[in-house]
């Protein structure tokens, strides 16, 4: 497992760098409405990175349509790209998914995904940036 660089900034710095929605979701743990994010139905090949620090998080190859209205992946790009925290908001106990480098809120992890992992990383589009895959020669 590689040692990840930790990225720390002040709330003022995050506010300057992010849109209002990105800040609300990624830094304050908000959730965008289902079927409204720019990546929920995207099928373009590439890599999804953290909107805050651009750490690679998920590949389009591991993305699938869960029917939830949020981008869903069955695994992260690397096991240590994301971290899990316990979320007990709204009277539920869930696994919150955060960026391992900057602790941006990404979404939640559920155990109703497809094989081979059986996992569903349900991620907010507002927490992501997209990097196209380079064209293959």
Order of helices and strands: HHEEEEEEEEE
For the record, what is the CATH homologous superfamily label? Peptide methionine sulfoxide reductase
Number of strands: 9
Q: What class would the helix/strand composition place it in?
A: mainly beta
What do the pLDDT scores average to? 93
Q: What topology emerges from the helices and strands here?
A:
Elements: H1 11-17, H2 20-27, E1 46-50, E2 56-59, E3 63-64, E4 72-73, E5 82-87, E6 94-99, E7 105-110, E8 120-123, E9 128-132
Structural notes for this entry:
By secondary structure, the protein is mostly beta strands. It has one domain: Peptide methionine sulfoxide reductase (Metal Binding Protein, Guanine Nucleotide Exchange Factor, Chain A, Beta Complex), CATH 2.170.150.20. The protein is 11% helix and 29% strand. The protein has a six-stranded antiparallel beta sheet. A hairpin with a 5-residue loop joins strand 6 and strand 7. The longest helix has 8 residues. The model has no long low-confidence stretch (mean pLDDT 93).
Note the main attributes of this structure.
single chain, 137 residues, mainly beta, Metal Binding Protein, Guanine Nucleotide Exchange Factor, Chain A, six-stranded antiparallel sheet, 2 helices, 9 strands
């Amino acid at each position: 497992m590689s040692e990840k660089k930790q990225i720390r900034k002040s709330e003022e710095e995050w506010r300057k760098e992010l849109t209002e929605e990105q800040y609300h979701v990624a830094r304050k743990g908000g959730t965008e409405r289902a079927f409204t994010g720019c990546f929920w139905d995207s099928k373009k090949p590439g890599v999804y990175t953290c909107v805050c620090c651009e750490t690679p998080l998920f590949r389009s190859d591991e993305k699938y349509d869960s029917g939830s209205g949020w981008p869903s992946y069955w695994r992260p790009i690397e096991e240590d790209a994301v971290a899990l925290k316990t979320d007990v908001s709204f009277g539920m106990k869930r696994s919150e998914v955060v960026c391992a480098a900057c602790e941006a809120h990404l979404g939640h992890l559920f155990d109703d995904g497809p094989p081979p992992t059986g996992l569903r990383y349900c991620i907010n589009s507002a927490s992501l940036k997209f990097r196209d895959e380079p064209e293959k020669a």
